[in-house]
Specification:
It is built from no helices and 17 strands. It has about 230 residues and is an all-beta fold. The strands form 4 sheets. Strands 1, 2, 9, 13, 14, 15 and 17 form a 7-stranded antiparallel beta sheet that branches. Strands 3, 6, 10, 11, 12 and 16 form a 6-stranded antiparallel beta sheet that branches.
Length: about 230
């Protein structure tokens, strides 16, 4: 958690916290949050000026979780002179780069063909669409022996409403994924599909997907899924 983190889902058992997922994940599976007695797709949205906001518990793991504060983070404290909650409007991210981060770990079911792939997509649906992918952890990563692995994916994004191409999103990403003594790193990979359309700032919404290579039961644990200013 950084000082410039604006919004984030964090792991936990409470409402709107990232829930652990158990399954085979051979079909790309979206990360989920707890929603009462069920779960819902974890959709990270660019904040706008329209929401009616109250207070909530701080996102930082170093802060007292019982102390309520204003909604949405600020880089320089709770309030900057002249700004009012929610601190963002429809042009706050127009031509201004931002990062989307996801990190976590998995316990993979053992199989000779077992792999894990984490992907970040520009969409709101839990239905995977490869054309929407903004970044990934590289090639499907081998975890054939099963057991614990860890991953981190960071996408640096830039959106502009006035670029003459229907508000397309440009992005580059870096990632690491590791299992036992093996590590796979991708760095500064340019998004190959530059036709990701986000006609308005309200369309800047992100979902994380995980795909395994085999049906052996695995457990996914996302530590954080966060949005921050650069």
């Amino acid at each position: 958690m950084n000082a410039n983190t604006i919004l984030a889902f964090r792991a936990g058992t409470g409402r709107n916290q990232l829930a652990d997922q158990v399954g085979d994940f051979t079909t790309a599976t979206a990360a989920v949050i707890n929603a009462g007695s069920t779960t819902a797709t974890a959709v990270l949205r660019i904040p706008l000026q329209t929401p009616i906001l109250g207070s909530f518990n701080p996102l930082s793991p170093n802060a007292n979780s019982a102390v309520l504060g204003p909604a949405y983070g600020r880089q320089y404290g709770r309030k900057v002179l002249g700004n009012q909650a929610p601190y963002f409007n429809s042009s706050s991210f127009d031509g201004v780069p931002f990062r989307v981060r996801v990190s976590g770990k998995a316990t993979m079911g053992a199989d000779v063909t077992q792999t894990l792939l984490i992907e970040l997509a520009l969409q709101t649906s839990a239905t995977y669409n490869a054309l929407n992918v903004v970044g990934n952890t590289g090639a499907a990563f081998a975890t054939a022996a099963g057991g614990a692995c860890k991953f981190s994916l960071v996408a640096e994004c830039l959106w502009s409403s006035g670029n003459g191409s229907n508000g397309n999103l440009a992005a580059r990403h870096s990632a690491t994924i590791g299992f036992a003594a093996t590590e796979q790193v991708v760095s500064d990979i340019i998004q190959t599909n530059l036709a990701l359309a986000a006609a308005a700032a309200a369309n800047l919404t992100f979902v994380v997907f995980a795909t395994s290579g085999h049906a052996a039961s695995s457990t996914l644990h996302y530590d954080e899924f966060a949005l921050e200013l650069i």
